Structures are given as structure tokens and as C-alpha cells.
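User: Can you predict the 3D structure for this chain?
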Amino acid sequence: MFAHAEHEYSYPFAEFYDHTPLYLARPDIAFYVDEARAAGKVLELGCGSGRVLIPTAAAGVPIAGLDLSEAMLARCREKLAAQPPEVRERVRLVRASMTSFDLGETFPLVTTPFRAFQHLISIDDQLACLRSVHRHLAPGGRLILDMFQTNPAAMGDPEWMREREDTPETKLPDGRSFRRTARIVAFHRAAQCNEVEFAVYVTHPGGRTERHTQTFPFRYFFPKEVEHLLARSGFRVVTVFGGFDRSPLSNDSAEMLTLAEKTDEHS
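Assistant: Here is the predicted structure, written as C-alpha cells:
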């Protein structure tokens, strides 16, 4: 139903990404920087505009960032241009799909911050991604899969189909302002997938307004399902955190951070 549905942020969503308070307040950067420092080098899948990538490079860690969206990579390059030369030299950006890439090097750590893996809808694409990661990990290397923990009570709740504002009116440096809403357009429980719509309302200094929408499928996962996917791809689960404070996964955890280790050189 959603073959090769990997999400690609387009204008104006890429342009406004770094001004979205929901993303600016996300408490994950220190977690990923600490993991990267411990590893010494990292590959980030779904690096986007560099929200995690740039602080990692600024912390002294060489990092390769991969993303499918040219609009998001352009934003990342623009932000990198303002960084000191030594920070820029630690960064390699690659435009490619998470399901098929070849960087010609291996890493001790691969990360998928802020739900990147959940844009892979089909099992074939999920396994293709994990096998590509496996090829790019050094022996004993680690993968961090960043997902939300699925709440069964919300899987078909029609209340989520109502348009909700997740970004209040926010001023931009050029004098425009925007606000954003989100809603679920359709539930596909048999496919473990929801169709999500973002709507951005832009107001120009003269009062002219625009409305832009982007709809994409978003996959949800369960803990044991993730463990099985990893086992099929040559990994073993080391631990699962329920938050960026490294607390264990519990019934009430909003996050589901799976740390897995490469085990099978011949997967």
C-alpha cells in the first residue's frame, strides 16, 4: 500500500523546521552527543537540517549525515557555513535513502534520531535499512533506533483526526510568521501505519496568507517486533530506554530507544 514511502521534507516544511518550538525543545541532543563522544565517530540517518548533527560535530566528533531530502540538507549546509572550519571539517553530508546507501567506510555507531526509522513503512524497507546499517558498522558496532512507544489506546482514537495546533504563531527573521497544525488523516491498523498531515499557515508582512500541507505515512512499532527485526538483520538488543535520561522502558514511557549491537558478520 505504501511502497517506498520514505518521507522527504519539502518546502516550506524544511524552511520552518528549525523555527518549530516542538523540535527546538526536544531533549535528545545531549543524549546523542554523549553516545557519539563515547563511540568516537558516528553515522546519523535522517540528519535533516543538522539539529543533532551540528552539536555533535561541535563537540569534536566526526559525523556523517545521511538524508533523502535535498531541502533539509540545504538547510544543514547553510547552518554549517556559519560554523568554525574545524567543525565543518568533521562533517560529511550524503543525499541517499536509508534503505540503500554505500559510504565506503564503517562506523562504531549509527543513529536514527527523532523517529527517522518510522518513515520506513514496509518490512522489506525496514530490513533493507538494517542490512545497510549492518554493512556500515564496525565489528561490535552499535545502532540506536529512536521511536515513540505505541499507545494502544490511541491507535484508532478519532480525536486524533481533529486538526491540532502544535506550533503557535511564531515570528520569522524576515518578518513573516507561521503556525502549524497536525492531524491523522487515516488509521491503517492492519498495516501498523497512520497517515499524518502537517498544515503550515504563513502570514506575510503585508497580510497575505498561505496554507501548505504535507501528508505522509508513519509506521508504529512494538518492542518485541523491533527485537525480531534486529535479530533477522544480525543484531542483538543491548537495552531499551524509555527516555533520554536512560530510564528503562516501562508501560508509561513515551520514548522507545533501542540500543542494538552488531553480532553477525555474514548477515
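The radius of gyration is 19 Å. The mean pLDDT is 95.
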